[in-house]
Amino acid sequence: MERTIVTYPHPVLAQKAKPVTEITEDIRALAAEMAELMYANKGIGLAAPQVAESLRLITVDLSGPEKREALQVFVNPVLSCPEGEVESEEGCLSVRGYRTTVRRAERVHLSAQDLDGKPIELDADDLLAICLQHELDHLDGVLFIDRISKLKRSLYERKVKKWLRQKSA
Ligand code: NI
Question: 95-128 pLDDT, tens per residue?
Fold first, then answer.
């Protein structure tokens, strides 16, 4: 089955994803497919729920879809030790036609496993810290539009309703 990126308001995006219990060939294939979809859609990060797989797995490549030289896959990632505060503009492949400023921690610590089951521990700052927080939110059913003001959110909801009406018309 060919996977695609699902968009808000798809219900899987609001679910808490389940841990990966075993790193099987299927999980490796899923990660490879996620990386391809991330690149094809010009993203720098993707979480499994965005391809309708409710699992705690993310792909990140800050070098971008042109270079594709720094792919990282994190299995069952956990963030700790948030420090500082930073605001930056975010978008999401699952949130169509919208970007806005979101406040995040400036630095975080990541614990995860790679696709060989080896433990990963890393301190992230700058874009990596923001990207990890954005992707980890997906695993808890949270989108960046859940972190903006009620007013901004209601304006976005109006746009979505209009799109959905147009689609069904
Ligand atoms: Ni996203």
Answer: 999 999 999 999 999 999 999 999 999 999 999 9
Q: Are 37 and 48 in contact (CB under 8 A)?
A: no
Superfamily name and number for 11-168: Peptide deformylase (3.90.45.10)
Name the 3-class secondary structure at 28. helix
Q: Return the CA Rg of the chain.
A: 16
Ligand 1 center–CA 41 separation, angstroms? 12
- Enumerate residues with CB within 5 Å of ligand 1 (an ion): 92
The set of catalytic residues is 135
Residue 81 to residue 99: CA distance in whole angstroms: 27
Q: Give 3 Cα–ligand 1 centroid separation in angstroms.
A: 16
Sequence ranges of the domains in the chain: 11-168
Going from the Cα of 90 to the center of ligand 1, the distance in angstroms, rounded, reads 9
Task: Please give the distance, rounded to the nearest whole angstrom, from the Cα atom of residue 56 to the centre of ligand 1.
Answer: 14
For the chain, residues with pLDDT lower than 50 are: none
Number of helical (H) and strand (E) elements in the chain, helices listed first: 4, 7
